[in-house]
Amino acid sequence: VHDMRVAFRRLRAILRMAKSAGDATSSPLRKGAKRIARVLGDVRNLDVLMEHIREYLDGAKAQADSACVEWCEVIRSERNEKLTEALASIHSKEHKKWKRRLNNWILSQGPTDRLKDTLPNLLAESFHELSQLGDLSDPTILHRYRIMCKRARYELEFFQSMLDPSARRSE
Questions:
Q1: Which of 33, 58, 71, 112 has its CB surrounded by the most CB atoms within 10 Å?
Q2: Closest by alpha carbon to 153, among 1, 4, 2, 6?
């Protein structure tokens, strides 16, 4: 689930770049990717919650009392429901149509040279948005900052192969 969410975030970053490069056809595709990312996010959030509970119980060397066990079962059950919803969404006719449109969009794209020209503007826009966020001690703002940094990282990773070798990160 986590890997699929990351893949969809990367796809959304690419579609955002295409929009910035003047491709209006990428917007509906981005909305479809956001929809799938959202249903996968519901599952992943419950996975993370369960991981935190396990870490707490392991770290505290605590015995899970009956209320904790019951709570974990409720979370596990909700996670399974959300996973079923996510799988239904991924296998839906609507998603299959979206995948065909995405495939056609990918095949219609020419060389990526014109995208390379958008990198400075994308980075400037990202840094401007980051500078406008405000007080990072606010958890909501800090979370938004983290998400925006990931988006900028995905954009840079996409362009890495197009950059001069001296500008690339050493592996």
A1: 33
A2: 6
Q: Other CB atoms closer than 10 Å to residue 101's CB: what's the count?
A: 14
Cα–Cα distance, 66 to 63 (Å, whole number): 9
pLDDT in tens, 44-93: 999 999 888 888 777 666 566 667 778 888 999 999 999 999 999 999 99
First to last CA, the chain: 27
Pick the closest to residue 37 from 15, 5, 10, 7 (CA basis): 5
| Dist CA 156 CA 148 (whole Å) | 12
- Report how far Cα 36 is from the mean position of its chain's Cα atoms: 10
pLDDT digits (tens, 9 = 90+) for 116-153: 677 777 778 888 888 888 888 888 888 888 888 888 88
